[in-house]
Design a protein that fits this description.
There is one protein chain. The protein has 150 residues and is an alpha+beta fold. The protein has two domains: 48 residues, no CATH class; 82 residues, no CATH class. It is globular, with a radius of gyration of 16 Å. It is built from seven helices and seven strands, in the order ββααββββαααβαα. Strands 2-1-3 form a three-stranded antiparallel β-sheet. A two-stranded antiparallel ribbon has the order 4-5. α6 packs antiparallel against α7. The protein is 40% helix and 17% strand.
Length: 150
């Protein structure tokens, strides 16, 4: 099947086989054909696509469980501002943040694979938005998943 991506700063930020079925018409215009293996977060350099580096999860025996407010403070102010803007265009970030904002959410288990995937996705989008340097992405994911410094 055909694969299409919306590319920002040489990074595939949205990938879909049918962009018109999932994205607003103004965004659909930005999609271009890409190879079938390309996924969100992949980067194109000199015409060659490459997968993002795998997130380095900190080597800890147990991940902390923290409250939503404490979780928000793991992100820098610039990252928080960008995340608020990305909520408008990125369905993954919108869903993740909506769950965090839900008053029924009392804790975030940083060891949960879903939380880890959402943090990785968010950092990837912050790299695409040029808020985080690509070389620092793995370290940011690891720092966030390690929780607050105590």
């Amino acid at each position: 099947m055909a694969n299409f991506a919306r590319i920002i700063n040489n990074v595939a930020v949205d990938v879909s086989e049918k962009p018109a079925s999932y994205f607003h018409a103004t965004l659909v215009k930005e999609f271009v054909a890409v190879p079938a293996q390309v996924r969100a977060g992949w980067q194109i350099i000199d015409g060659t696509w490459s997968a993002p580096l795998e997130a380095v999860v900190p080597k800890v025996t147990s991940f902390p469980t923290i409250g939503p407010n404490e979780f928000y403070f793991l992100w820098s102010m610039a990252e928080q501002v960008a995340i608020d803007k990305l909520r408008e265009t990125d369905a993954g970030i919108k869903l993740f943040m909506r769950r965090l904002d839900d008053p029924r959410t009392l804790e975030i288990v940083l060891g949960d694979p879903t939380v880890q995937a959402a943090v990785h996705h968010t950092v990837t989008q912050l790299v695409a938005a040029e808020v985080i340097d690509a070389a620092d992405a793995e370290a940011r994911v690891a720092a966030i998943l390690a929780g607050p410094v105590r």
